[in-house]
Amino acid sequence: MKRLLPKPFIKDSLEYKSKKSNGFFIITYFLMIIAIASSPVSSADIEKTAGDSSITIIDDWGREVTLDKHAERIAFSHTAAGEGILLAGGWDKVVGRDGSLTDSRFYSNLDTIPAVSTPNQAFSLDFEKITELHPDLFIIQKHYDSREQFDEIANKLEPDTPIVGLDFLEPENADSIKKLSILIGTEQVADDYVNFHDEIIKNLKEKTDTLSPDEKPNVFLKGGTTDKISTFGRDASFWNRMCSLAGGKNIADGLPGDNQEVDLEWLTQQDIDTIVGSCSYRNYPESFGYLATEPFHASEKADEIIIDIKNNEIFSHSDAVLDDNVFLLEGTMISNPKAFIGSAYLAKWLHPDLFSDLDPEQIHQEYLSRFIGTDYDLKNIGLFGYPANS
């Protein structure tokens, strides 16, 4: 006889399946209730059935993904998925990886793991290589509205290789990490990280949820070049949520699409209180990111970038420039599992008095040392948020 626990109050859910004999049903039922109540994932919907050791979750596309047992061999595409696997405690299970990864201090044994995707093209996969590696599970980032691309990949891999789509860019919760840990049997490791993540989010929301709309600055995320400025629109929901968590408003949340070029005439008509320049390692390899080539001169380059933004006639008369509210955020602080740390940097900039005791650098360092397991010291590498503690 199958029994379901109470339905979740969040649409996406997690499910387990296994079987218990009737003699232990009542005890099992109450243990399940206790487990759900204490779970760090508020969207948990756990199902237990009799004599079946299979594992089922609902992925972030709303698909049911079932494995006969915990996956021991996994492959993935997209850098965010790689970092998610680290946080879930599953890197030792990786047999195939995204082709963009180059940092062996961040990802151990990287050179010994074959790439299964084209660098910087997460959906361009080497299906022959994936088949040769015989993974028990293929993991890919849920990317905006690219369901059609995902389904094409799934049709080529399944049923021989199960595929799961998870959103590792979501800053407000770490459900993707928890879901992954259920599939690979590393729940205890993941729970430690989820608790850390959720405590940071709780501390942010306790303060920003009390702000009135008038107390929330208008934020513009600047990407692109001087002549071709880009930003995140409404489909890039992670950036909208980052702004909300930090107590701000994304002025581009009404624009269609995700990362796109902005109409300059539209931009000149906007009321901009804060400008955040997005600076990737790819565009500024000497100054930003873990692999920065000239980290001890990084602040000089960052100051030059800020001056260029302030001198741009599109922004020069904005309140953001007049009030000296121009900041820089490294790209993985936005579109990566580290987005919750990016939210902490942003909160510090938008509301310095409200978050006088917040130290984004300390949060980032603990993330690296405790959960990624790398020896990186933020004092000796490139920039991620500048100024760090404005």
TrEMBL record:
InterPro entries to which the protein is assigned, alphabetical: ABC_Transporter_SBP (IPR050902), ABC_transptr_periplasmic_BD (IPR002491)
Keywords linked to the UniProt accession: Membrane, Transmembrane, Transmembrane helix
Keyword Nuclease: no
Short name of one Pfam family: Peripla_BP_2
Transmembrane segments: 21-41
Domain of life: Archaea
Residue ranges occupied by any Fe/B12 periplasmic-binding domain in the UniProt entry: 73-358
Protein name from the UniProt record: Periplasmic binding protein
